[in-house]
TrEMBL record:
Residues 112-309 form the Helicase ATP-binding domain. The Q motif is unique to and characteristic of the DEAD box family of RNA helicases and controls ATP binding and hydrolysis. It catalyses: ATP + H2O = ADP + phosphate + H(+). This is ATP-dependent RNA helicase. Belongs to the DEAD box helicase family. SUPFAM superfamilies: P-loop containing nucleoside triphosphate hydrolases (SSF52540). It comes from the Eukaryota. Keywords: ATP-binding, Helicase, Hydrolase, Nucleotide-binding, RNA-binding. Its EC number is 3.6.4.13. One of its GO terms (molecular function) is RNA binding. The lineage of its organism: Eukaryota, Fungi, Dikarya, Ascomycota, Pezizomycotina. It comes from Aureobasidium melanogenum (Aureobasidium pullulans var. melanogenum).
Length: 400
């Protein structure tokens, strides 16, 4: 993977081979933390041999990391962010008391510190590793740093009016490949900003554009989370009033999926509609499980030279799907699919009732809304024991 990055000289502009001997040790120190964050949790010290190996890797791959000296130990708990005055006290309290979080994940440890410094970051991280907070915390803190008045929660009339926030006060945009993921990110962001006056809005497909647009226009927006198509629609609508002249941060979550799903044209249009980086400096954070050529192209067009590369996926690590048992059952027609689903669920629920077994959950996808409606009605009306399979809707809605 990194060999592919080596071929993109415009992506990774500076080689450690160009550094002087005085700066080389600093660069190697940084690469030891970012290139292999697993070292963070295992040891805070490196042997001279490991430093030489890391230096060889850096020179071979041509990774252009900026050199900086940092003798502080890596931050591994959220409380340390407050103790070192890196993140506002209110946000730290929200993380610990309201969200019940204490220790950072590997991704969070590797990214938050660098992102708080304003660095552009390309992070290779899998889904489910805590990367959402890895970019939400720095984005929020940098907003509060720019406007400390947003650090206190507005009340009364000011809260209803969004503390005079307008639709063109967007400070951060988070681009997600799917509506579900965007809504999940927005929900996490709203929990994080609960004790501040920062306003989070969503702009996703599959919902009424007018409803989301009215919310932005009436309440204002600081952090906008959306899918590429809907973001393009809103920013290209000259009558919407939604603009981002003060944009400070742009986040691409699951960049490989964004490009796999064909959103490259929309992303290009969004970039054209946003302030030019040379006119308004901004931070760009990109998270991706893989870094194929398509992601490298996005890197070239979005990240500043000298960005940080954070890798939390080992080269020898199996993909998630390779470690999850998978089974295929072929059925023909909906008339056979629904009974098969019922039998599979009954068996799985019975297995889940055993001691120390994990709870059973299932997500069933159909090809169309009509099939979903039909299957839902069929599952609801089938004579299945209540303890065997729960209906897809509650009793009250069933009798309306």
């Amino acid at each position: 993977m990194l060999g592919a990055l080596r071929r993109c000289s415009t992506v990774l502009p500076r080689s450690v081979a160009q550094f002087s001997n005085a700066t080389r040790s600093s660069a190697v120190s940084k690469i030891s933390r970012l290139y292999n964050p697993a070292l963070i949790t295992r040891s805070l010290h490196q042997t001279s041999q490991s430093r030489q190996q890391n230096a060889a890797v850096v020179e071979e791959e041509g990774l252009g990391f900026q050199s900086e000296q940092n003798d502080n130990a890596p931050i591994t708990t959220f409380a340390e962010l407050g103790n070192r005055k890196l993140v506002s006290k209110g946000v730290v309290q929200t993380l610990i008391k309201d969200m019940g979080l204490e220790n950072m994940t590997e991704v969070q440890t590797a990214t938050i510190n660098q992102a708080l410094n304003g660095n552009d970051i390309l992070a290779q991280a899998k889904t489910g590793t805590g990367k959402t907070l890895g970019f939400l915390i720095p984005v929020l803190q940098n907003i509060l740093k720019q406007d400390p008045s947003l650090g206190e929660r507005s009340r009364g009339y000011a809260a209803r009016r969004g503390n005079r926030t307008t639709a063109d006060d967007i400070r951060a945009i988070i681009v997600s490949p799917t509506r579900e993921l965007a809504e999940q990110i927005a929900m996490e962001a709203k929990r994080l900003v609960a004790n501040t006056s920062v306003i989070v809005q969503t702009a996703v497909g599959g919902t009424q554009k007018s409803a989301g647009l009215r919310a932005i226009q009436r309440q204002g927006c600081h952090i906008l989370v959306g899918t590429p198509g809907r973001l393009k629609d809103i920013f290209s609508d000259k009558y919407s009033g939604v603009e981002a002249p003060g944009l400070d941060a742009l986040v691409f979550d699951e960049a490989d999926r964004l490009l796999d799903q064909g959103f490259w044209p929309e992303i290009q249009e969004i970039m054209e509609l946003l302030p030019k980086p040379e006119e308004k400096s901004r931070q760009t954070l990109m998270f991706s499980a893989t870094v194929p050529h398509e992601v490298q192209r996005l890197v070239r067009q979005t990240l500043k030279p000298g960005f940080d590369f954070v890798k939390t996926v080992r080269d020898d690590e199996e993909p998630t799907h390779a470690r999850v048992p998978q089974h295929l059952v072929t059925v023909n027609g909906l008339e056979n699919t629904v009974p098969a689903i019922v039998e599979l669920c009954k068996k799985a629920i019975a297995d889940a009732s055993q001691p120390d077994a994990r709870p059973f959950k299932a997500i069933v996808y159909f090809n169309s809304t009509a099939e979903v409606t039909l299957a839902s009605a069929a599952l609801t009306e089938l004579p299945v024991d209540e303890d065997s399979i729960p209906p897809p809707q509650n009793t009250r809605s069933r009798h309306r």
